[in-house]
Amino acid sequence: MLPLATALCHRRIETEFKGWRLPPRRPALGVQMTGDRAFTLIPADAPLPAVGRQVFTTVHDNQAEICVLVLRGDAPVASRNAVIGQFDLTGLPPGPRGSARIEVTFQVDPNNVLSANATDLDAGRQEQWLRQGSMVARIAHSDGVTPA
């Protein structure tokens, strides 16, 4: 299991989304991990439809939530990639660091629309981003990422 970044997401905009339409030349898609590292879930050259998933864990004792930062780009350093969205998985049960198992899944459909979710594998709870629920996105529409 890999540790996710511990920054908390701050919800500023709450809107229903079907997904984000990616540019025709799709970038690599991943998440930010602790230590400003990026982890790629779907490489740029993956054929469509594409699914990428990885199990992550907490980095602090009794960590009650995680923030999933959705990244676009190929850099191994997370801050060198674009943050295209973020969402929280809250209500994690208390426990030592590394005990939670959080599966993050990205899907890009045949129309090049991205959706993501995070599932607490121990509790079975899930938070979806884009297809349902709310999100925060810092999007520069000039980069080719637009609402679907």
TrEMBL record:
Domain of life assignment: Eukaryota
InterPro entries according to UniProt: HSP70_peptide-bd_sf (IPR029047), Hsp_70_fam (IPR013126)
Pfam families named among the record's database cross-references: HSP70 (PF00012)
SUPFAM superfamilies: Heat shock protein 70kD (HSP70), peptide-binding domain
Gene3D superfamilies: Substrate Binding Domain Of DNAk, Chain A, domain 1
Keyword Nucleotide-binding in record: yes
MF terms in GO: ATP binding; ATP-dependent protein folding chaperone
Record key words, sorted: ATP-binding, Nucleotide-binding
Name of the protein in question: Uncharacterized protein
